[in-house]
Amino acid sequence: MSGRVLVSGANGFVGSAVVHALLRHGYAVRALARPSSDTANIDGVDVEIVRGDLLDPTSLERALLGCEGLFHVAADYRLWARDPHEIRRTNVRGTHAILMAAQRCGVRRVVHTSSVATLGLHHDGTPSDEDTPAHLADMIGAYKRSKFLSEALVRRCARAGSDIVIVNPAAPVGPRDRKPTPTGRVILDAARGRMPAFVDTGLCVVHVDDVAEGQVLAYERGQRGRRYVLGGENMSLKAILAAVAELTGHRAPWLQLPHAAVLPVAHVAEAWARVTGAAPNVTVDGVKLARHRMYFSSRRAEAELGYRARPAREALADAIQWFRGNRYLD
């Protein structure tokens, strides 16, 4: 049996996948979830659930006591919020708080879940990697800025001597995407036949369980302070929607809209969301991000960690199967 580790955000989409991967590898897992959080994703598995909040240092110390490792997965992953400062508080201040608590509790090693959102992009659409330069001014929206700043904080801690490895997941899809995430929402809408049109963009699609395996590999084999992209298959949105259509028996959308045509719709949707409080289906930041093909290479993780990702079609099929089994398609 390996040592005890804490997973923050353990009830979430990626966090619960990390929990399951750690259990497969023989780790004793303590799962951190907020007091109000639904823990259905980890119900019935052999974990110790502790309640706490990233902005409550005392609760973090209680959770970390006796742990040799920390997987910091918790994050506010939204492309729109009525108060964007909420995203920054969770992702930047929360990361600082849990790293300081880990240091006080003598945690040996940390894996920090960042995002490919922090990496630069090539204008010609060729895959980026860990060394593609990026600046805060390049970051579109509150989510990307918060992840960029939190990763910069983590790298400073690593340079100061903390044993931290950084992983940068691409666009994970698969089971247990309860909210769902922005990527999961695209797949769900397509699986329901509710996406009649699309824009010219692309994503690096990866199975959430492969991301989780990559996190365990990073904990066991990663170099301190080093970043590892955990990606899968680079696909255009058109190809993703065609695959979902084939898997569900729907007709693939054929109408490609220019980004400029969708942007006013996003502004209206966000204005209505500020009135109602319900998250908009299309966001301004999402449309701006879609102007770029977000393609990434996992070569470093493959060479240094032994990371491998299954074909994107399998990830999409598992996501659809989970949505269907949990009545999201009804």
Structure description:
The structure is a single chain. With 330 residues, the chain is of the alpha/beta class. The chain has a domain at 4-173 and 203-234 and 295-311: NAD(P)-binding Rossmann-like Domain (Rossmann fold, 3-Layer(aba) Sandwich). The protein is built from 11 helices and 12 strands. It has helices at residues 13-24, 57-64, 85-104, 141-159, 182-191, 208-221, 237-248, 259-276, 284-289, 299-305, 312-325, and strands at 4-8, 28-33, 48-51, 69-72, 109-113, 164-169, 171-173, 197-198, 202-207, 227-230, 233-236, 255-256. The strands form 3 sheets. Strands 3-2-1-4-5-6-10 form a 7-stranded parallel β-sheet, with helices on both faces. Helix 3 (85-104) runs parallel beside helix 4 (141-159) and helix 7 packs across helix 11 (312-325). The longest helix is centred in the N-terminal third of the chain and has 20 residues, at 85-104. The termini are far apart.
